[in-house]
Specification:
The chain is built from five helices and five strands; from the N terminus they run βαβαβαβαβα. By secondary structure, it is of the alpha/beta class. The chain has a single domain, classed as Rossmann fold, CATH 3.40.50.2300. Strands 2-1-3-4-5 form a five-stranded parallel sheet, with helices on both faces. Helix 3 links the parallel strand 3 and strand 4. The relative contact order is 0.17.
Length: about 130
């Protein structure tokens, strides 16, 4: 299973790669929204892990553009990962089309649980143990 992680912080990308390695999942990294959208254009992913607060193009705009696509990639499951704890943030992300929101720091068991539930509800059937 290949997962796209769009995140500007290199340390966060490394930690996520280490966690996904435990589950046997591969991870494609994108250090900003533009690179993430280009990766979506040319790659095949089971899901997207998306940071919200990035320079140039934030995660909200990435999510808008993914959901505005006119191909099957518009339905890619998206899990937002954020350190932002604004009161209405989760609702806003879901309204924009995120499948789930996790708040940083993310525990490995919580991450795997959410990925499994999101993939199951999307009909992907992929399970992370």
């Amino acid at each position: 299973m290949n997962i796209l992680f769009i995140e500007d912080d290199a340390m966060n990308r490394r930690v996520m790669r280490d966690m996904l390695d435990v589950a046997g999942a591969s991870m494609t990294e994108a250090e900003n929204g533009e690179i993430g959208l280009a990766a979506i254009e040319r790659g095949t992913f089971a899901l997207i892990l998306l940071d919200l607060r990035m320079p140039n193009m934030d995660g909200f705009e990435v999510l808008r553009q993914v959901r505005a696509r006119v191909d099957s990639k518009s339905d890619l499951p998206v899990i937002v990962l954020t350190a932002d704890t604004a009161v209405d943030l989760r609702a806003r992300c879901i309204e924009l089309g995120a499948n789930e929101v996790l708040f940083k720091p993310v525990a490995m068991d919580a991450l795997f649980d959410v990925i499994g539930r999101v993939l199951a509800s999307a009909g992907s059937g992929g399970v992370i143990e």
